[in-house]
Amino acid sequence: MSRAAPTKRRRESRLAVWLLAPSLAFVALLGAFPVLSQFVLSFTHYNMKFADERGFAGLENFARLAADATFLQDFWQTIYFTVISVGFELAFGLAAALVLNRIGRGRAAMNTSIVLPWALPTVVAATMWSLILNDRMGLLNSVLVKLGAIDAPVVWLGPGLAMGSIILADVWKTTPFVAIILLAGLKSIPDQYYEAASLDGAGRWHQFRFVTVPLLRPFIAIALLFRTMDAFRVFDIVWVLTGGATKTETLSVYIYRMLFRYSDLGYGSAMTVALFLIVFLISLGLLKLLKASRETV
Amino acid sequence: MKRMRLSSTGLWITRLAIAAACLIPFYWLLNISLSAPSAIYKMPADYWPRPPVIQNFRAVFETGQFPRNILNSFIVASLTTLLTLALASPAAYALARLKVRRKELIMAVFLGIAIFPAIGMIGPLYVAMARLSLIGRYPALVLPYTLMSLPLAVWILTHYFSTLPKSLEDAALVDGCTPAQAFLRVILPVSAPGLFTSAALIFIFAWNEFLFALIMTSTPESRTVPVALALFAGLHELPWGTIAAATIVSIAPVLLLVALFQRVAPPGSASTLHGAMKWAS
To answer: What contacts B137, CB < 8 A, 6 or more positions away?
Structure first.
């Protein structure tokens, strides 16, 4: 027995190494290279179209970035997209979660309907919305004209309105994700809390304010974190609906243009690193918020 | 009890409104896909196809590469799912059940990969794949997708394995199994629900992914469904009916998966919840 125990433990840790080795090797081989090379490239001049002018750039790419009017404009447009769309997604997601909680009959049908937009490829969802928003044949224009709300079809994806239309499509697509997380949060609140509150004479508003909201706060923070990170890196929906035209270009779309249209790997990488740092800082801030919200519970 | 009865009509109206908001775009898509090209450009539009035609669906399968694109998507998503599970489940078992040194560091590496923006990996991975002359071939998509879905799969499975009773392995060991055999013959089979949940999430992610698919494919024959759909518009002069029909066709597999997923892991179930919690902390 006394000899068998260490052998067994050693055998166990040897097995653990063998079990972990493949996935760690995979991550090291495939993941470390792109992450590190992105940082290295951001300090070089490297345009694939002028490959012989390759060389060390120091911080020049980042200096160029700070003075790049397009980058700054896209940065603000990305912030606008993120704040508005995530704001609506949280509001609608919370409302949906509240009315879908404790649903009895029709649960499967409701669940399938709200999961569907989320499970749909963003490109497909965007195509669908471009059919609805179309100014020559779209459902929205048709209905609004019939109702007398507008006199003539509106170019929803044209100047001035395009960003709003993109936000509408994104809210439709990702509100379900928020609703599902918040629904899980609501289900984790024990019924006794509501019973106790109502014994104490708390009305529905007070129950919501003093039971639901505090206990749901960590879940709201999680939804906020995931959605903000994703919204800040948004690409597909913008790409399909407008291609970044008429003041709708986001940072990811600009990076895509720089890397794959202009083949400027050095400058494109510097933008990528900047985007990474921005998203990193935002998630750090939100994680702090998440921790704080946990401590108050 | 009282507060539920009071507002149950209002609740149901709101619920139906939510379902309608989710489903109306699908109705419009179906309407256009079944309309003749001449009937599409009408203002006010027809709210149902008169008469319904199937020529758009026929066009999807006769002209162009769309069947090939569906096959590509299916192969890429399946291979990604298999490879990810093959890598993630042993790792997750070790992390959940065995003595592992520097467990936190290993988890941090996986999390770091998940947080790094995909757009930052595309450039270097493109260069790597080009060097290996894999552009336009399945590995150029399967390998990056596996990298991106590995962290989530490792996490979900680690959580799942740690909820299984320890007596399962003990019984297997007493019966003379080695620890490796206990994992393969006892733990994996009883973990089917956890494996299926991960598989469904990975498959949907790979089926839907657009950015890598756009860049790593070079020819119409090598494109996956999302890329083919996005580039449909550029090929001809906006054949909206065909685009709508192709979109409907591409939804079908996702619909099937959602239905299956409902059975195994209803949305808002404990496993998704704890996944999200642990992920963010």
So the answer is: B222
User: Of the given ranges (B67-76, B83-92, B234-243), which has the lowest mean pLDDT?
Assistant: B234-243
Structural domain containing residue A269: 44-296
Tell me the shortest Cα–Cα distance from B226 to chain A, in angstroms.
6
Q: Is A241 on the interface with B (CB under 8 A)?
A: no
What's the CA gap between A157 and A241, in Å, rounded?
A: 7
Question: Is there a contact between B277 and A218 if contact means CB atoms under 8 Å apart?
Answer: yes
| pTM of the predicted model over 0.90 | no
- Tell me whether A261 touches chain B (CB under 8 Å): no
ipTM above 0.85, yes or no: no
- Tokens (6 digits) for A110: 């409701």
Burial class (CB in 10 A: 0-12, 13-18, 19+), A204: middle
Q: Which domains does chain B have, with CATH numbers?
A: 1-53 (no CATH), 63-280 (1.10.3720.10)
Q: What is the pLDDT of residues A90-125, one digit of tens each?
A: 999 998 888 888 776 777 777 778 778 887 778 878
- Mean pLDDT, residues B251-266: 70
Q: Structural domain tally of chain A?
A: 1
Closest approach of chain A CAs to the CA of B113, in angstroms? 7
Q: Report, as an integer, the average pLDDT of B267-275.
A: 49
Would an 8 Å CB–CB cutoff place A204 in contact with chain B? yes
| CATH at A53 | 1.10.3720.10
Contact assignment for B93 to A268 by CB distance below 8 Å: no
